[in-house]
Amino acid sequence: METSVASPCIKICQIDPQSNLCTGCLRTLDEIATWSVMNDEEKRRTMAAVERRRKNDANTEDTGQSW
Fold it and tell me: Where are the domains of the chain?
C-alpha cells in the first residue's frame, strides 16, 4: 500500500503575478486545483517540481534576480 503524499500547502495562498506560482507552496493554480484528484505518482511529480522551483528561487535570491 502506498503512503499518501502530503500537500505542500502552508496556508499562505497568494499567487505571484510574475511567476504565476503560489508564494506559499510554489505550485501553479492548476496543480493546486487538481491536487485532490491526483494519484500519488502525480503528486510526487508535482512535489519534485516544487522542490526544483524552491531551489531555483534560492538561487535567484543569491544572485539578486527576480523570478
Answer: 38-62
